[in-house]
Write a structure and sequence with these properties.
The protein is an alpha+beta fold. It is built from four helices and nine strands; from the N terminus they run βββαβββαββαβα. β5 and β6 form a beta hairpin. It starts with a strand and ends in a 7-residue tail after the last helix.
Protein backbone atom coordinates (compact mmCIF):
# COMPACT_ATOMS: atom_id res chain seq x y z
CA UNK A 1 0.00 0.00 0.00
CA UNK A 2 3.03 2.28 -0.38
CA UNK A 3 2.50 5.57 -2.19
CA UNK A 4 4.49 7.93 -4.37
CA UNK A 5 3.92 11.38 -5.79
CA UNK A 6 1.62 11.72 -8.78
CA UNK A 7 0.27 14.60 -10.88
CA UNK A 8 -3.07 15.86 -9.66
CA UNK A 9 -6.29 14.07 -10.61
CA UNK A 10 -9.40 13.08 -8.71
CA UNK A 11 -9.04 10.91 -5.62
CA UNK A 12 -10.70 7.50 -6.00
CA UNK A 13 -12.47 8.00 -2.67
CA UNK A 14 -13.34 11.69 -2.23
CA UNK A 15 -12.75 13.35 -5.66
CA UNK A 16 -10.20 15.83 -4.27
CA UNK A 17 -7.00 16.52 -6.26
CA UNK A 18 -4.46 13.80 -5.62
CA UNK A 19 -0.91 13.83 -4.34
CA UNK A 20 -0.36 10.06 -3.97
CA UNK A 21 -0.58 7.01 -6.17
CA UNK A 22 -0.25 3.33 -5.40
CA UNK A 23 3.38 2.31 -5.86
CA UNK A 24 2.44 -1.25 -6.72
CA UNK A 25 0.07 -0.66 -9.64
CA UNK A 26 0.67 3.06 -10.42
CA UNK A 27 -3.00 3.28 -11.35
CA UNK A 28 -5.22 4.37 -8.46
CA UNK A 29 -4.56 7.83 -7.02
CA UNK A 30 -5.51 9.43 -3.70
CA UNK A 31 -5.46 12.77 -1.95
CA UNK A 32 -4.15 11.36 1.34
CA UNK A 33 -2.98 8.20 3.12
CA UNK A 34 -6.39 8.16 4.85
CA UNK A 35 -8.27 7.76 1.57
CA UNK A 36 -5.77 5.21 0.33
CA UNK A 37 -6.27 3.18 3.49
CA UNK A 38 -10.05 3.36 3.08
CA UNK A 39 -9.74 1.95 -0.44
CA UNK A 40 -7.20 -0.73 0.38
CA UNK A 41 -9.54 -3.63 1.26
CA UNK A 42 -11.01 -3.42 -2.25
CA UNK A 43 -7.87 -2.29 -4.07
CA UNK A 44 -5.77 -5.21 -2.83
CA UNK A 45 -8.06 -7.70 -4.58
CA UNK A 46 -6.47 -6.83 -7.95
CA UNK A 47 -3.50 -4.53 -7.29
CA UNK A 48 -0.79 -7.18 -7.53
CA UNK A 49 -2.35 -8.67 -10.67
CA UNK A 50 -2.19 -5.55 -12.86
CA UNK A 51 1.49 -5.94 -13.76
CA UNK A 52 0.80 -9.33 -15.37
CA UNK A 53 -1.88 -7.68 -17.50
CA UNK A 54 0.07 -4.61 -18.57
CA UNK A 55 0.73 -5.85 -22.12
CA UNK A 56 -2.11 -7.36 -24.16
CA UNK A 57 -1.44 -10.62 -26.05
CA UNK A 58 -2.36 -8.84 -29.28
CA UNK A 59 -3.69 -5.55 -30.61
CA UNK A 60 -7.22 -6.95 -30.67
CA UNK A 61 -7.44 -7.66 -26.92
CA UNK A 62 -8.78 -5.41 -24.16
CA UNK A 63 -8.26 -5.77 -20.43
CA UNK A 64 -11.51 -6.41 -18.54
CA UNK A 65 -12.58 -7.30 -15.00
CA UNK A 66 -14.31 -10.66 -14.62
CA UNK A 67 -16.54 -11.38 -11.62
CA UNK A 68 -16.88 -15.16 -11.21
CA UNK A 69 -19.94 -16.71 -9.58
CA UNK A 70 -18.31 -18.62 -6.72
CA UNK A 71 -15.12 -16.64 -6.00
CA UNK A 72 -14.61 -13.65 -3.76
CA UNK A 73 -11.97 -11.86 -5.81
CA UNK A 74 -12.51 -10.45 -9.31
CA UNK A 75 -9.96 -11.19 -12.02
CA UNK A 76 -8.33 -9.38 -14.90
CA UNK A 77 -8.91 -11.11 -18.24
CA UNK A 78 -8.15 -10.36 -21.88
CA UNK A 79 -11.27 -10.07 -24.04
CA UNK A 80 -10.86 -10.31 -27.83
CA UNK A 81 -12.44 -7.50 -29.86
CA UNK A 82 -12.77 -6.81 -33.55
CA UNK A 83 -14.41 -4.21 -35.74
CA UNK A 84 -18.07 -4.97 -36.30
CA UNK A 85 -19.32 -5.85 -39.76
CA UNK A 86 -22.57 -5.32 -41.60
CA UNK A 87 -24.43 -8.26 -43.13
CA UNK A 88 -22.58 -7.68 -46.39
CA UNK A 89 -19.19 -7.78 -44.68
CA UNK A 90 -18.56 -4.02 -44.65
CA UNK A 91 -16.33 -3.13 -41.70
CA UNK A 92 -17.66 -0.53 -39.25
CA UNK A 93 -15.86 1.83 -36.86
CA UNK A 94 -17.35 0.36 -33.67
CA UNK A 95 -16.04 -2.68 -31.75
CA UNK A 96 -17.53 -6.11 -31.16
CA UNK A 97 -16.30 -8.11 -28.17
CA UNK A 98 -16.37 -11.89 -27.81
CA UNK A 99 -17.70 -12.74 -24.32
CA UNK A 100 -18.30 -16.46 -24.79
CA UNK A 101 -15.20 -17.72 -22.94
CA UNK A 102 -16.55 -16.22 -19.70
CA UNK A 103 -20.30 -15.96 -20.24
CA UNK A 104 -21.01 -18.93 -22.48
CA UNK A 105 -23.41 -19.03 -25.40
CA UNK A 106 -26.58 -17.69 -23.77
CA UNK A 107 -27.91 -14.28 -24.70
CA UNK A 108 -26.28 -11.35 -22.99
CA UNK A 109 -27.64 -8.36 -21.13
CA UNK A 110 -25.84 -5.04 -20.79
CA UNK A 111 -25.75 -2.17 -18.29
CA UNK A 112 -23.78 1.03 -18.81
CA UNK A 113 -22.15 2.81 -15.88
CA UNK A 114 -22.06 6.53 -16.64
CA UNK A 115 -21.80 7.96 -13.15
CA UNK A 116 -20.63 6.98 -9.67
CA UNK A 117 -23.62 7.95 -7.54
CA UNK A 118 -21.83 7.11 -4.29
CA UNK A 119 -18.92 9.47 -5.03
CA UNK A 120 -21.04 11.98 -6.98
CA UNK A 121 -18.84 11.98 -10.07
CA UNK A 122 -19.27 11.48 -13.77
CA UNK A 123 -17.17 8.75 -15.36
CA UNK A 124 -14.81 10.06 -18.01
CA UNK A 125 -14.95 6.63 -19.64
CA UNK A 126 -18.16 4.66 -19.24
CA UNK A 127 -18.04 1.06 -18.05
CA UNK A 128 -20.12 -1.66 -19.67
CA UNK A 129 -21.35 -4.60 -17.60
CA UNK A 130 -22.18 -7.71 -19.61
CA UNK A 131 -24.00 -10.69 -18.09
CA UNK A 132 -26.14 -13.66 -19.01
CA UNK A 133 -29.91 -13.49 -19.27
CA UNK A 134 -32.12 -16.56 -19.27
CA UNK A 135 -35.82 -17.31 -19.45
CA UNK A 136 -35.80 -19.43 -16.31
CA UNK A 137 -39.14 -20.69 -15.05
CA UNK A 138 -40.06 -21.82 -18.53
CA UNK A 139 -38.83 -24.68 -20.68
CA UNK A 140 -37.31 -26.23 -17.57
CA UNK A 141 -34.42 -23.73 -17.50
CA UNK A 142 -33.09 -23.26 -13.94
CA UNK A 143 -32.20 -19.80 -12.62
CA UNK A 144 -28.62 -18.64 -12.83
CA UNK A 145 -26.65 -18.94 -9.61
CA UNK A 146 -26.10 -15.87 -7.43
CA UNK A 147 -22.84 -14.07 -8.17
CA UNK A 148 -20.98 -14.11 -4.85
CA UNK A 149 -18.16 -11.90 -6.14
CA UNK A 150 -20.42 -8.85 -6.49
CA UNK A 151 -21.36 -9.06 -2.82
CA UNK A 152 -17.73 -9.35 -1.78
CA UNK A 153 -16.47 -6.34 -3.75
CA UNK A 154 -19.45 -4.33 -2.42
CA UNK A 155 -18.65 -5.45 1.16
CA UNK A 156 -22.12 -6.94 1.50
CA UNK A 157 -23.77 -3.62 0.72
CA UNK A 158 -25.12 -4.70 -2.68
CA UNK A 159 -28.82 -3.83 -2.80
CA UNK A 160 -29.85 -6.83 -4.90
CA UNK A 161 -28.53 -10.20 -6.00
CA UNK A 162 -26.83 -10.33 -9.35
CA UNK A 163 -26.83 -13.74 -11.01
CA UNK A 164 -24.37 -15.47 -13.27
CA UNK A 165 -20.84 -14.38 -14.26
CA UNK A 166 -20.24 -10.72 -15.11
CA UNK A 167 -17.69 -8.94 -17.30
CA UNK A 168 -16.84 -5.25 -16.85
CA UNK A 169 -15.24 -3.46 -19.80
CA UNK A 170 -14.21 0.18 -20.20
CA UNK A 171 -15.45 2.21 -23.12
CA UNK A 172 -13.37 4.98 -24.68
CA UNK A 173 -15.19 8.14 -23.59
CA UNK A 174 -18.96 8.59 -23.39
CA UNK A 175 -21.61 7.08 -25.66
CA UNK A 176 -18.81 5.16 -27.30
CA UNK A 177 -18.78 1.82 -29.08
CA UNK A 178 -15.02 1.44 -28.74
CA UNK A 179 -13.42 -0.62 -25.97
CA UNK A 180 -10.39 0.46 -23.94
CA UNK A 181 -8.41 -1.17 -21.12
CA UNK A 182 -10.04 -1.21 -17.70
CA UNK A 183 -7.81 -0.01 -14.81
CA UNK A 184 -7.57 -0.29 -11.04
CA UNK A 185 -9.33 3.04 -10.55
CA UNK A 186 -12.38 1.56 -12.29
CA UNK A 187 -12.68 -1.14 -9.62
CA UNK A 188 -13.87 1.45 -7.08
CA UNK A 189 -16.59 2.68 -9.45
CA UNK A 190 -17.62 -0.91 -10.12
CA UNK A 191 -17.90 -1.80 -6.43
CA UNK A 192 -19.91 1.34 -5.68
CA UNK A 193 -22.26 0.56 -8.58
CA UNK A 194 -23.42 -2.66 -6.92
CA UNK A 195 -24.34 -0.78 -3.72
CA UNK A 196 -26.85 1.51 -5.46
CA UNK A 197 -28.06 -0.37 -8.54
CA UNK A 198 -30.61 -3.16 -8.72
CA UNK A 199 -29.69 -6.23 -10.69
CA UNK A 200 -31.34 -6.50 -14.07
CA UNK A 201 -34.24 -8.92 -13.91
CA UNK A 202 -33.56 -12.05 -15.89
CA UNK A 203 -35.71 -12.44 -18.96
Amino acid sequence: MDSSQVPSKSCSICNEPTSLKCKSCSSSAYCSPKCQKEDWSLHKLLCSRLAAFSTPPGTNFRRAIYLPIHEKAPKFVWVPVEKSRLWDGEIQDDDDADFTEWLGERRFGFRMMKRNQVRNRELENEIQLTFKVTAYGSLGIPPLEVNECTGHVAKGKNISLWRGPILAMKMVGKDSELYGHIDMEDLRDLADFFTVTNAVMEM
